[in-house]
Amino acid sequence: MSAIRHLDDKSLTCVVEAGLSCKNFEANLNTRGLSFTHYPASAEWATIGGSIAARGSGVLSSKYGKIEEHILNVEWVLPTGEIVTTPAVPRHAAGPELTQLLVGAEGTLGIVTAATVRLRLLPRHRAFIVVAFEDLSDAIEAGRVIMTSGLKPAVMRLYDRQAASHSLARAVETPLDQATFVMMFDGEYAELVELEAALAARVCAGHGGTALDESIGAIWWERRYVFYYPPYAPELPSIWGTIDTVADFAHIEAVYHETTAAIKAACPPEYNLSLNTHFSHWYEWGSMIYARMKIPVAPPDLDAAKALHDAIFKAGIEASLRAGAVLNDHHGVGMRLAPFMTQQYGDAGMEALRRVKRALDPANISAPGKLGL
C-alpha cells in the first residue's frame, strides 16, 4: 500500500497510503516543488504508517512539528474488521480527535492504511548559524529564548562538548571543542529567513555564544544522515543504544545531567563507555536529549552483553523519569521501553489505556504486548 491517492494543490494536502517510504514520498513531492517536511533519520526505510505508529519526528521538527502536526486524518482498520475514516481536518469540534488516538499507538488499536497529510512549498531560501558555547547551561538558555520568543528555526541541534568534538566534528570535518548549536532557518521569503537567523544569532551572542563559520551548518545539512551509516555509526562487536527523553524547560537541564551520570555509573569502567548527547528537537515549552552510548567491545558472552545493555538502559531511563522527563520523544515504546510504561502513566493511567485497547481489540490480536498492553 504505497500509492499517492490524491494531491490537492490548492489546500496543499495529500492522501497517501501507509506503506510508502518517507524518502520516496519526499522525492515525488520535490518534483512538484512541494515537501512533506518530515525528515526522520530513518527516512530511507521509515514509512508513512510507521512514522504515525511511533509518533516519529524529523530534523525539521522545531519549525514544522513532529508527525502528529503533519497528519490531518487517517483511514484506519479496526482489529474487528471495520474501516474508519476520521474527520478530514484535525481542527474541529465534532467530538474527540480520533486521529490522534492512532498516532503513537504502535498498531495496538488497529492498522492505519492511509492518511491525509499536510504539504508545504519547498523553501526558496535557507540560512545557517553555528554557535559555540563554553557553558552548556548558557546554550540551553539561548535555545529556550529562541523557542519562546517566536523565532522558528527549522533545525535546532545542540551538541554537548563530547558530541561536538567527536560525532559532529567528524561529520563536518571541522575541529570543535565546545558545546555547539547548529541552526537552520528556511522559508519562502529570503528577507524574513535572514532576519530570523540574525535575531537568533543575537540571542546566542547575548548568552555567551561565539559565532562559528556558517558553512559548518551547510555542511551539516548536506551530511545530516551520515551519522547513521558506517563509519560514523557503531557496528558490532560494539554495544550501543540511544536514550531519547523529553522534558519542559524547567527540567531539561537536570534531565541531561542526571541521565548522563546514571548511564556512566551503570557501566563498569573497564568497558570504556562513551556518551555523545545532543538536544535534537526543540519546542515552545521544552526540548529533549538524544543520549547515545557506546561500548567499543562487548563482553564476549551474549547473555552478559545483553545484561550490560539492559542495565545501562534501565539506569538512564529511570534517572530521566526521576528528573522530570517523559519516557520517549520520538522513537516509540515498542518492547524495549514497555516495562517503564507503568512508571510513566501510573496504575490508573495504564488501566485506562488497557480499557481502550480491550474495547477496540477484544480478541487482543493487534500488536499484543506493545506499549505494555
Report the CATH C-level class of the largest domain: Alpha Beta
Number of strands: 14
CATH 2nd-level architecture of the largest domain: 2-Layer Sandwich
| Secondary structure tally, helices | 12
Query: What is the helix content?
Result: 25-40%
Largest sheet: 7 strands, antiparallel
| Shape assignment | globular
Beta-strand share of residues:
15-25%
Q: What is the element string, with H for helices and E for strands?
A: EEHEHHHEEHEEEHEHEHEHEHEEHH
Low-confidence stretches: none
First-residue to last-residue Cα separation: 27 Å
User: What would the average pLDDT be, to the nearest integer?
Assistant: 96
Structural class: alpha+beta
Describe the structure.
With 373 residues, this protein is of the alpha+beta class. It has three domains: 4-121, Uridine Diphospho-n-acetylenolpyruvylglucosamine Reductase, domain 3; 125-224, Alpha-Beta Plaits; 239-322, GMP Synthetase, Chain A, domain 3 (2-Layer Sandwich). The protein has helices at 22-30, 48-53, 61-64, 67-70, 98-102, 136-148, 161-172, 190-206, 215-222, 252-265, 302-322, 341-360, and strands at residues 4-8, 13-17, 34-35, 71-77, 83-85, 111-118, 120-121, 125-133, 155-159, 179-187, 210-212, 239-248, 274-279, 286-295. A seven-stranded antiparallel sheet has the order 11-8-10-9-13-14-12, sandwiched between helices. The chain has a five-stranded antiparallel sheet with strand order 1-2-6-4-5. A two-stranded antiparallel sheet has the order 3-7. Strand 4 and strand 5 form a beta hairpin. Helix 6 packs antiparallel against helix 8 and helix 10 packs antiparallel against helix 11. The model has no long low-confidence stretch (mean pLDDT 96).
